[in-house]
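Mods, move this if it's the wrong board.
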Amino acid sequence: MFKKKKNSIHNEIDAMKQESSTTQEKEQNNSEAELINEKTEKTEIINNMQEKETDVKTEEENNNDNNNIIEENISKKVLMKVEGVSKHYKMGEVDVTAIKNISLELYDGEFVVILGPSGSGKSTLLNILGGMDLPTEGRVLMEENEITNYSDKKLTIYRREKIGFVFQFYNLMSNLTAIENVELATEICKNSLEVEQVMKAVDLMDRKDHFPSQMSGGEQQRVSIARAVAKNPRLLLCDEPTGALDFNTGIKILSLLKKINKDYKKTVVIITHNVPIGAMADRVIKMRSGEIIENIINKNPIEPEGIEW
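Not the wrong board. Structure tokens:
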């Protein structure tokens, strides 16, 4: 009997030890689980803090970029301002809207490319900037003078003294030599540049006495650019200046326009459908269906020689 009691006590002791061991194991497992949960929670908190820090940095960078653009534009002198300009045409019984509610600013000395497919309204905008056409609605100001209120006579003076045009098909006088085409433009302007100086700048002194029919397309376009620059205008408007030229000649013309922009401090605006040309601009304005859809600051313009199309 005593032996049975002794065995019973041993069994109880073993059971208690096993229970204690199980309890300790459970407590250990619970502790490990709690540690894991605690670590997981801490990791999540750290990740959330890092994400928030990244978001704040990104927001700060974006704000800095926007502030830099604003400060850059404020620091530049506004040469021309377009405010809410629209142009409507009447074709029989049909009303056609060429451009609608265009607003933009052009800054002194910048190089701008206006991009858009055929029918996007870019040539209409160029004609209005150049005083060759007037808007149906809105205002255009050149150096704070509203040209949309000008009479035909004042618009003629404006085009003569403020604007230099470079056309796709040159528009040279066929019965005049290269230098005579340039001289003709300077004779009607007050503050024109020295003709031979400009001819040297476009590298045409050795061809100055040739007629347009004796010159290549690239040479004729250089005469066209010289004619526009020699007037000493405030704004150079170029309508598809490379459109009638082969690739290599086109790159030379773009290089010349960039040189004119830098050396003569002229504001240059190129109208084109050729997207790669935008890479050389300080700013790219994209048009579609008569509206501006993007106005992009190009922080890193490339040299014309780096353009391919």
